[in-house]
Each structure stands twice: as C-alpha cells, then as structure tokens.
Amino acid sequence: DVKVTQSSRYLVKRTGEKVFLECVQDMDHENMFWYRQDPGLGLRLIYFSYDVKMKEKGDIPEGYSVSREKKERFSLILESASTNQTSMYLCASSPRTDTQYFGPGTRLTVL
Amino acid sequence: KQEVTQIPAALSVPEGENLVLNCSFTDSAIYNLQWFRQDPGKGLTSLLLIQSSQREQTSGRLNASLDKSSGRSTLYIAASQPGDSATYLCAVNDYKLSFGAGTTVTVRA
User: Fold this and answer.
1) C-beta separation of A101 from A4 below 8 A
2) What is the three-class DSSP state of B83?
3) How far is Cα A71 from Cα A51, in angstroms, rounded to an integer?
4) What region does B101 belong to: left with phi over 0, alpha with psi -120 to 50, or beta?
5) Distance CA B54, CA B94 (A)
6) Cβ contact (<8 Å) for A43 and B89?
7) Would you call B101 and A42 a contact, using CB atoms and an 8 Å cutoff?
8) Are A37 and A43 a contacting pair, CB within 8 Å?
C-alpha cells in the first residue's frame, strides 16, 4: 500500500513564525504536491515537484516556498506565518500522470 | 485555466437510494479524471480514475462515466448506505489536478 505521511495532524503557530510542514512518501513516486483546503474554496494547489530539487508554482504560491532535497520528502515552508494561512494542508504523491495518493492532512492554525 | 464545477453542493437521500453526482470541466485536453472521497477532517481517498481514452470505470457499487467532448463526468453510487456519507470530490488532471468544491452526501438510515 502507498503511504504518504505528514509530520503533524494539528499545528498551532503565532503570526510571524517560520513554519515547516513535512511530507514523506514511501513508493518512489516522481511527483509530489502541496494543497490547501478551505471551506467553499475546495483544494488549491500551492506548489508541486516532478523531481528532486525541482519545483513549480501552483495556483496560490504567494507566501509559501518548498524544498525537495530527497525524492521521498517534500517540505512546505511558510517563511512568516500569517492568520490567512490558517487552513488544512494536504500533501500528495503520484507516479507520473497516474492517480494521486494523499496524506492525512495537517490542520494549521496561525494566531 | 481549468475550472471544475460540482453540482449539487450537498445531497441528502434515504438509505437504498441511488446517488448521482455531477462534475463539469472547461478544458477537455485532460490526461484523466479522478473521483475522491473525503471524510470530515481527513485526507482524500481515491475512488476511481478514468483515463482520457476511457468512457467509464466501475468498482463495486461505484460507476463513473466520462464525456470529454462535453466536459462532464458523473459518479453513480448504487444502493446507498449510511457509510457512504462523505464529501465527494472530482479532480481533472491536465498535468496538474484541478478540483471541484465537492458534493457533501448524507445517507439517512
């Protein structure tokens, strides 16, 4: 079974803090993705990566950066957290254009 | 930019009734289309993947159709059960996934 894990289920941070969200997959997938999910807005793509050290902006990259130093790990970084970044963050991985496998999500609250 | 719309936003049916969930998309140049299920506070679980060359996919009580030319997909769930209560999301893959806002289904016992 494909397994995608995220470092935390719940996270509470203060405005201005630097926040790291980690995602690890165990199936040697090339592609990895970060989404945020908000009520009424659905899932929106923040960043994705097709290979190690490669990244591409999604639909809403502002305020975020990513890092992919190893194939199995894709990190989302909030350089200076703001209250409008309170959301559910979902990581996914996939082999090429096949189905995406999602992690359980991290619910981030920024106070 | 791909736009994905799901109608209705919410649906409540008695147990045993068949469910019909609709998804429409604006750009037909897609690799595939996926249907996901999401339980409250949880991640997404893939239900069905339809490649662009296919017309439908079936898995148990679930059947999904794809009409690429008209930009539509329909998910049918036969003989619904209370355990089918969840939010169902449609996602179109044209090198990246674009999601609809989902249909929240409640099956009443």
Assistant:
1) yes
2) helix
3) 7
4) alpha
5) 15
6) yes
7) yes
8) yes
Q: Hey, what amino acid is at B64?
A: A
Nearest to B96 among A41, A42, A58 (CB): A58
Angstrom distance (rounded) from CA A21 to CA A110:
13
Token pair belonging to B12: 């409540």
Side by side, the strands of the sheet bearing A19-25 are A4-6, A19-25, A73-78, A65-70
**pLDDT tens for each residue of B60-108:** 999 999 999 999 999 999 999 999 999 999 999 887 789 999 999 999 9
Tokens, residue A15: 């405005």
Contact residues, chain B to chain A, C-beta under 8 Å: 31-32, 34, 36, 41-46, 49, 89, 91, 93, 95-102
Task: Kindly list the averaged pLDDT for each block of 10 residues, start to end, along chain A of length 111.
Answer: 87 97 94 92 91 91 96 96 97 83 94 96
CB < 8 Å to A45, chain B: 96-98
In this structure, what token pair is assigned to residue B98? 């674009």
- Which letter does DSSP use for residue A84 in this model? G
